[in-house]
Amino acid sequence: MPGGGPWPITATTTWTVTWSGGGRTGTETVQLSSTGELFVGELHVLNQAEER
Q1: Torsion sign across C-alpha atoms 36, 42, 44, 45
Q2: What span, in angstroms and rounded, lies between the C-alpha atoms of 10 and 49?
Q3: Smallest Cα–Cα separation from 37: which of 12, 4, 10, 2?
């Protein structure tokens, strides 16, 4: 099956940082995200039957 060209993708990472110093503490959450296109030349599909 043809891939149909570029597909939009998003990659996201989340970091939780706990810090302490100078008699203080804290927690910060940082989230970074990036978008782009991924070219798909050919697409294969695997269909797996569920066992009962």
Answers
A1: positive
A2: 30
A3: 10
Distance, in Å, from the CA atom of 9 to the CA atom of 51, rounded to the nearest integer, reads: 32
- CA dist., res. 22 & res. 17, Å (int): 16
Instruction: Kindly list the averaged pLDDT for each block of 10 residues, start to end, along the chain of length 52.
Output: 76 96 96 93 79 67
Quickly tell me which residue has 């009962």 as its tokens.
52
pTM recorded for the entire structure: 0.51
Tokens linked to 43: 């697409």
CA distance 19 to 50: 46
